[in-house]
Amino acid sequence: MNTDDPGLTQLRDVLRKFAADRDWDQFHSPKNLASALSVEAAELLERFQWLTEDESRNLPPAALAKVREEMADVLNYLVRLADKLDVNLLEAARDKIVVNAQKYPADQVRGSARKYSES
Amino acid sequence: MNTDDPGLTQLRDVLRKFAADRDWDQFHSPKNLASALSVEAAELLERFQWLTEDESRNLPPAALAKVREEMADVLNYLVRLADKLDVNLLEAARDKIVVNAQKYPADQVRGSARKYSES
Amino acid sequence: MNTDDPGLTQLRDVLRKFAADRDWDQFHSPKNLASALSVEAAELLERFQWLTEDESRNLPPAALAKVREEMADVLNYLVRLADKLDVNLLEAARDKIVVNAQKYPADQVRGSARKYSES
Amino acid sequence: MNTDDPGLTQLRDVLRKFAADRDWDQFHSPKNLASALSVEAAELLERFQWLTEDESRNLPPAALAKVREEMADVLNYLVRLADKLDVNLLEAARDKIVVNAQKYPADQVRGSARKYSES
Fold this sequence. Notes:
4 copies of one chain form a homotetramer. By secondary structure, the first copy, chain A, is mainly alpha-helical. The first copy, chain A, has helices at 6-21, 30-46, 53-57, 61-85, 89-103, 106-109. The model of chain A is unreliable at 115-119 (pLDDT under 50). Chains C and D meet through helix 1, helix 2, helix 3, helix 4 and helix 5 of C and helix 1, helix 2, helix 3, helix 4 and helix 5 of D.
């Protein structure tokens, strides 16, 4: 991991110990971690599935607390997977933004974004 | 965001500018961002879907590069969603680990983890 | 499979041949098929992620054609998984509706559905 | 729907009544239904996430019962979405198999399937 994210590095270490203490590394193949991450991302989506976009911008405290928990689960599995694959998450994220900037030049997509899929 | 993650804070700021430059905030309701995050998590899973667990531990460089890109997409949408909802990701992650530690006490789940669903 | 779904039974048989012709059964463990199904469900969701609910009710022909393709992919993997696990899909679906009817009695959830998560 | 799937047509009708009785059509925009389907597909995947491929081929009865329930949820949302978009699921599935057969000719992908991503 990179020195500009002591928080992520510490999180990685806490997660290593958590799994080791429970003898769970045997289940933490990248394939399984990617599955678990995907499941958590869906649990996050589930908090919004029947809400309108406006309602999603104005979550009551209890609903926001649940969303926050699911976001935490996603981050934890992402950090765990990054650890197993030796991926520097922040570096990867920055690199991808550069790729996206070339894929979606601001002067071309601005204002007519509705025609462009962001993925 | 918290002061122990200058990297995540900087990523948040880059993503704010990226969306603003393209007039894309209109699409970035939390509901839509949660959908996009879920879609990227599935694109990450897709890299592993036909691999065995062992193959997933030994990805060739080209495959790893693709996995790294999808992980970046997941982090970027997670940071974007956290920004819109004013969620401190690292704090949320740490809080969730505390909850998980109580839910899965090491002395109870160790060694017989196969019987316990981790979620 | 059941005699009230000759279409699903025929689809199952076509999919069996498709996989056998390509020697793909080796990859079709239930675990892998569930992953693939999840990935296709996300590709379906992707068609809607930046649309408003109203736009999703009024898809232009080209967009609808893509949605139709992704729905086909989901059904194909679902039928394939049902085949491998010997699950009667229609029977399972009917049984689940009975469970849901007890979980969400019409007289209790009608009109105030917004407070109830449907899952 | 098509006449070769009386089962699916009947399922569609039961689901129409179920939603109407609860005044839930207001939530059943295609965008929301696609989200719900994706969430159920992930709940299905969750049943397998820590299992090996072999374990997934030999599910104990209780585990299989849960998998069957999640598959039912996926089918129910798929049929509901097909209804809202007037998509003939079986026809779409058959059309997609034809497309896939051209994309993955048996003589080219047989035996070396591991190099080919099926999506």
